[in-house]
Design a protein that fits this description.
Layout (H helix, E strand, L loop, with lengths): L16 E4 L6 H19 L3 E6 L5 H13 L4 E7 L2 H11 L4 E4 L8 E7 L9 H12 L9 E3 L3 H10 L9 E3 L4 E3 L4 E2 L2
Parallel strand pairs: 2-3, 2-4, 3-6
Antiparallel strand pairs: 1-5, 4-5, 7-8, 8-9
Amino acid sequence: MEITRNINPHIFRGYDIRGIYNEDLFESTAYTIGKAYGTYLKQKFNGDKVIIGEDNRLSSPVLTNALIEGVLSTGVDVIYLGLVTSPMLYFANEIYDIHAGIMVTASHNPKEYNGFKIAFDEKGEICGDEITDFRDFVYKADFINGNGRFEKVDIKKRYVEMLVSKFNFKNRLKVVVDSRKWYCINCSKRYI
């Protein structure tokens, strides 16, 4: 895959990197951002591993594959979670004690959008001036080369176990949910 220098500067937003797939954001964009991310992680944070997950947008698999290829080509190892939510990625950051992470998502935006939430360390996702600095680094295109290792892991079971461990109900609840309203059967209250 080729590095692209033709990256729309408007995809670098205040809190993430985001644009319309195949209009602002292409496979080559994801690959270049992956190369930049791996290089930046190694040079500025002395990191060598990143955890990557993706949401369920139709464009996520293509962008994720290109992103991973770019990261691996810098010598940074990738732990790939597959289809997960952003909180699941954050959970993986904690259980693996690897705070470098990329979530392929456009969050609340419409389906034609996609993008990247990125973090380099325990401070969490970059924003503001950090994104501007990273954008400038991407445009320099002075990337390192290497051969990172790829590992796919499934954290879903551990994540569900963690969630279940946070709740301790004395009585079983029966809850009925539909998209318009929901009721608590045990207490007969309507909530929406």
